[in-house]
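Thread: "does anyone have the structure for this chain?"

Original post by V.I.:
We have the sequence but no experimental structure in hand. Need at least a predicted one for the grant figures.
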Amino acid sequence: MLSALSAGPITPEEAGQLLLPFNAADGDDAQERDMAALVRRRLVILLDGRLSLTGAGFALHSEASGLVDAARRELTAGIGADEYAMAVSVLERMSNNADRLGTR
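Reply from O.Q.:
Generated one for you, tokens below.
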């Protein structure tokens, strides 16, 4: 959610749509609890019907992004762009195959 909000304010409905792929078994209830936790921690604010990051939210997003970028650099050290693209392509196809298996 911090990544989504780093691009600018969104409505709670838009946030719900963005989080659909991440819904757990308890779905909307979990989303509401998680969003409420972000508001309680003063990372997100609801202003004029739109969710926005606070200064603390932007700072946490920036810190997390830096950690992700550093981990990505370390994990892909010595792997060429073509090799990386091939690995991602294979994993994507495997994921799609697994999705199809689940619908049988």
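V.I.: this helps a lot. DSSP finds five helices and two strands in the chain.
O.Q.: and The two ends are 32 Å apart (CA to CA).
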